[in-house]
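Per your request, structure below.
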């Protein structure tokens, strides 16, 4: 699946990165808690969120994410979009809820980020 495919599936509007829509989307995660994204995301992925503050773009930069999808029609301010564009991100907004966004992408074949849970310590 490419980011262009995602635009069609989600009835999304591209906010920046239109020249990068041919890139592949391999996995996705959904969260409004950037601490969870930092803790559990271990690969380049798509982040689906309703949070439109600068922390989202900083998190994307730290993890080398490739695409941000803002759910519920949310649109970040111009400063955030400029920073995202400078980082080479594709940014889009969809009128769908985060839950529906995830479901539509899953139904189309995109899967979640595999999570490596800590192994439990065995008692002696």
């Amino acid at each position: 699946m490419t980011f262009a495919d995602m635009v069609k599936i989600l009835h999304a509007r591209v906010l920046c990165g239109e020249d990068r829509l041919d890139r592949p989307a391999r996995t996705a995660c959904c969260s409004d808690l950037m601490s969870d994204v930092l803790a559990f995301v271990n690969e380049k992925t798509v982040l689906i969120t309703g949070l439109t503050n600068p922390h989202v773009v900083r998190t994307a930069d730290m993890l080398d994410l490739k695409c941000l999808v803002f759910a519920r029609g949310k649109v970040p301010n111009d400063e955030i979009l400029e920073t995202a564009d400078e980082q080479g991100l594709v940014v889009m907004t969809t009128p769908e809820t985060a839950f529906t966004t995830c479901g539509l992408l899953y139904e189309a074949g995109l899967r979640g980020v595999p999570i490596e849970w800590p192994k439990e310590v065995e008692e002696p």
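Helices lie at 3-10, 34-40, 54-63, 78-86, 98-107.

Regards,
D.
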